[in-house]
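Crash report, auto-generated. Payload:
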Amino acid sequence: MAEPMHITEERLEAIREEAARNGKVRDPGMVPLASPFPKPAAATSYHGNPVLKPPTWTWQVPLYFFVGGVAGTSALIALVAHLFGKAELVRAALWIAFAGALISPPLLIADLGRPARFLNMLRVFKLRSAMSVGAWTLVGFSSAIGLSVVCHELALAGYGNTWLLVLEWITEIFAAFSGLILASYTSVLLGVSAIPVWSENRTLVPAVFLAGGLGSAVAVLDLLGFLVPATQFIGIVVSTVETIIAISMELRGRYVDRPLREGATGWLVRAGGILAGPVSLLLRIFWGHNPALRYLAALCFVVGALITRYAWIAAGRVSSRDPQALFQLQREGNKGIPGA
Amino acid sequence: MAVSAFLTDASLCIGCKACEVACKEWNHIPADGFTFTGNSYDNTNSLGASTWRHVMFLEQPTALGPQITGTEDPFRWLFLSDVCKHCGNAGCLEACPTGAIVRTEIGSVYVQPDVCNGCGYCVVSCPFGVVDKDHEVGTAFKCTFCYDRQREGLMPACAKACPTQSIRFGELDELRQQAQIRVQQLQERGYNDARIYDPEETSVAGTHAMFVILGEPEAYNFPPAPEVPTIHLASAWSAALISALAVLLVVCVAFAT
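Recovered output after restart:
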């Protein structure tokens, strides 16, 4: 409770005298403590209200972005490992991809509310809607990776024949390429939206999501005990990419990128970038021969990549609330930095 | 059928909110609750899943045309009833993965409530921030342009309820002309900052709900140059393709060595 204003009797007399003398009181009067008094102002937006609507997605959606990234790139790893005859890796990578394909629909359904609603996605196919492309990709990918796993396990169990082998190769190839779409369409989904920070970073987000997906896929392989040179090599490359992206984020001066640098979302982006970038990279380069520390590097990358997904959605939410980010972009492109 | 349109005029609106009430009653939209925003007489703040007409209250330190207020500082109180723009090229319609959002024979953009699955992609794809997901129902809602009424030859509820003809309803081409005549009229009477808000030059390709406003569009939270997000499809997918090729290369090199 604020202190009550003490208006003395003399003050009231003075007001009456002034009113009697001039016909009005010039004094602006008192402004109650702690209350913004409405005053007409040359507004640059409607009462500072957001122009755009924030994303409505629940916490399962960024998790799905992450899972889809891991599953999709795992399918690619499985195919390439198969081509180069790394049998034990093929099986693990196939199962990781299959697990991702199994987890993804429940995550999406949790956001939609009812299982039957997912089927509405399959009424039409719209190339112009990244969400439609993604839904169909998930269906195609899941079918292909499911068949791959079945073929692979049947072959291992001794039921292998030429037809099974051909089917496995076809489904693996299909899963690998649809997997790349699965891992990247979510970034296109964000880039092709009205939210300024997503739209203006539409050429960067695919790199962020694919690097995060691939790095997490090899990290999961690492954590499952496949401490092979190939996963180490990929881990070092993607952590280098993450480091470069993290540094470039800090150097950006655009107003529209503020949610990626400032406030809680800025720290979230930073935390994700540091864990998946330099921390993971240094651990791999200097202590990669030590299994325990390589596990740690893998763990740091997975956590970092996961945080990064949440950070991008959260940054979009902040960006949607800022009318100036939108107005400034539309009025003058990305040149000026008002208030930065 | 002819393409129908709204022309909403800020110079005629008296802020009575009859349009909001009529819209809610006709369409059975739930109440927004009693919240005090402190933003003049506006307690709904923006369009949303349960607000399909939204009356804005603007307090500006500018004279209203030749009007004399008797106050020391110039002052004007403006009102405008905002609504879904029913874009010529609609971001929500392009984004919708279920085909729930369609273009009707009267040119409006309509969300079929039984087809929408609540994915929320239209919400982030509307350059005007109009459509929103109702979290209780779980699907997206916005102005239907009273599609049910228009099919029976009736004008939308808001236009019918408007007591000052601030909301005009008619054929798109005719209202576009009317808007120009009105702006010219207003400027001749000293309302120098009267203008049309109907982004025809951008990828939105004009709206079927046009506005006559006084002052800058930003003051009404109207984006000065709204674009349909799908104009960025090519650049976003190209970036994804390049990144995917890089991933393919890295994985191949890793296993080949």
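Post-recovery validation: Residues 291-321 of chain A form the longest helix (31 residues).
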